[in-house]
Structures
1.
Amino acid sequence: MRRIRLFLEMIKFEHTIFALPFAYLGMVLAACGWPTWHQFVWITVAMAAARTLAMSVNRVADRHFDALNPRTARRALPRGLLTPAQVWGAAVISLVVFLLAAWQLNGFVLRLAPLAVIALVGYSYTKRFTWLSHWILGATDGAAAAGAWAAVRASLSDPIPWLLWAAVTVWIAGFDLIYACQDVEFDREMGLKAVPARFGVAMALRWARACHVLTVTLLAAVGWAAGLGWVYWMGLLIVAVLLIYEHSLVSPNDLSRVDVAFFNVNGYISITTFLATLIAVLARA
């Protein structure tokens, strides 16, 4: 039990809250209401397994960098509280559970699952060769919204899942740009690729703002394409205000409140978007 607690703390399992509401958003829009409980349960299982797989691989892949970085040196792997073999074992179990969930949903999702696995495993290595890693991370997480749509419809022919995917991609890329500002000097020293290390903190924060303006624009396109009512638009207004607040917390000269911007505000954004969408869809039905 102690190792399980250490593992869940290491992968920040509670941060599934960032992506799960957007997966549910795709699910609700695809179902034009609440889906079957079978779909809901297996979408949830797939999401939790996918994130656990991705974070397990990430922690093993970055363990040597984490040991050298003062911000991450207290993680379980650098401290020897867990072994790479144990974390790889958890990754394999997560992979099996993810594929099982895809099989339980429908054949279309199962056929797409290998592509999802490549992204979930591969994104952790992208920082070694491209500063576009922020958007690759965003696209990997954003696939959850499109995947949940596919789990209900067994198709991606509608523009809505693609708009959702794009919205989540730039949303997550935006706050990952902010978060990466903490490691500028370390990334430069280690030769790791990131926008703050390549172009500076001020430029990274400007790009993050641009990403979040695009996030609101794409979510507005989702609302228009889905024909959602005033509750959705009120929720989107709240999201815009939260994003403005998030950016007010950080500046090139003061990154002391990055954790508040990253963890708290983004959790509120994802939950607000999902609840506003759910209410709007149920009201329309």
Note: The mean pLDDT is 91.
2.
Amino acid sequence: MSITVDFTDKTVVVIGGTSGINRGIAELFAEHGARLAVASRSQDKVDDTVAALRTLGAEAMGFAADVREVAAVKAGLQAVYENFGEFDVLISGAAGNFPARALGMSANGFRAVVEIDLLGTFHVMQSAHTYLKKPGASVVNISAPQAFIPMEAQSHVCAAKAGVDMVTRCLAMEWGPQGIRVNSVSPGPIDNTEGMKRLAPTEEIRQMTLDSVPLRRMGEARDIGNACLFLASELGSYISGTVIPVDGGWAQAGAGSMAQAMSKLVP
């Protein structure tokens, strides 16, 4: 039996979709026929990504907004709706992170990560709800292993991402009766991303991370995109309220030695 995942005539919105994992997700949906809207804080990155998506044959647009600013998020999503109609898929992936111990972190640093990761996710979901296809829409929040694995020098991210997963689960219950499915995907170590460069800045830590993944390879943005494609398709039509690790088994060992090695880099 062959399985075809086709998003022709479907509208997919990817928040944070101009770099890293999220851009890879947007490009994969474009390859499967979707029309795309992407957003990030940088207009230059938005323009570059929209051009790339159009090169892939997708109808595409974008807007610049900081997810911490709810008015900007609302205005951008309204513009997408006016151009593309109802949203079939919403990917919320804006995130911030830096390694810092609690006693060495400013209140503003902690607040910034919580506001981007957690409050930003809430802003995106609340603002998009009006435009989500009912029934049939799929929302995927991009989480992280820190949501359920405590790590040194990551208290801010652990708190924020744990909140994201609880928002996912709560809104799966609240929005389920409207036919909206809400899930989280938790990426493991994904190669060629800013996050990996920041959290595994040396070759030694990179190799330790690789050795700690049961599948013995780094992930690619396409791996996360494939999980999002599955959740957003009819193949995932009875899945809601889940948090799915896409990490080569990394979380089973508590994210291995990368977290320990990373903590040694922080005073």
Note: The domain at 11-264 is CATH 3.40.50.720 (Rossmann fold).
3.
Amino acid sequence: MSRMVSQVSPSETFAGRVLENLATPLAVLDDALHVHYLNPAAEDLFSVSARRLYRRPLESLILDVSPLEGIRRRMREARTPVTRREVRLSLAAGGTVVCDVMMGPLEDPDRPGLLLMELARRDHVARADRDVRLVEQQAILDKLLRGLAHEVKNPLGGLRGAAQLLEAELPNPALREYTQVIIREADRLQDLVDHILGPRRGLRRARVNVHEVLEHVRTLVAMDLPAGIHIERDYDPSVPELHLDRDQMVQALLNVVQNAVQVLEGDGHITLRTRIDRYVTLGPRTVRLALRIEVEDDGPGVPDTIRDEIFFPMVSGRAEGTGLGLSIAQTVINRHGGLIQCESEPGRTVFSILLPLDGGTDEEVNHGG
């Protein structure tokens, strides 16, 4: 393992490559719980670089290490690896994770006293199951809504046309006020149906700089941004260009950012953030590398009553909302092979847009439907 020793044999080089590609976070610690090694999955979990943490205390990653100290004591007493299920860990970088923690002695005559800690994330499993269900439910709901929308469009056109013909035949111009009501309401319903149908054309993919798209969205939002709302940026400069439909991505991101602006009600902060994640589950498949775009706000949070339905059409936390913005955004991201996740509590709501770096076809996303 190149991060632990300066010179390695061929077999150790192979073992190091295996560790570097594991999706499970692994850490090598000494008996004082100082960090000697983190694999890339652990770096992603803790949002740190292993090089910066060499021989640093584990408290620099985890705010309360007392559960891990207890596991270490039991391991020393039993002289065998010990596993503790569903340990809740508060991360120094922010957030909480639930893991099955395995800790055991690492036999190395050159470096005695080292421990190997494995963190099997339980929340990832639950989220992956939830994401798969969400993608499947949205695919079914999308078919139903599209079918219903098409059934509504034809009668609406006939209704509007009949109102126009009636208006032309009315002898009293004052009565045209009523036909205008019919025409305006038919147009409003037509617009609503078009929004429900969402993007209908195929994806027009090209190499896209995601940060340029985010900056374009920020500029659009800033044109009508209340003075009390501030948008901050935290971009990862290593993010490569992606093969995306730029116009549809602008619409999806604009919907998510505007949703954050609306919930803040004129006062608060929004952060636009980009990162690269390893071994990400996107619905039914796992990708080795994915782009994470986060839109974070410090508003009141998503109400518990709609948290599991926030991406469904016609679901909104605001009385005046249509509930279509996030649904359309999720549809666009799904068509790109990704998905949107939401984590929310009072004072911190994060919408995470995950996109595979290897692209993904419409067929893969639609699962043949």
Note: The CA atoms of residues 275 and 292 lie 5 Å apart.
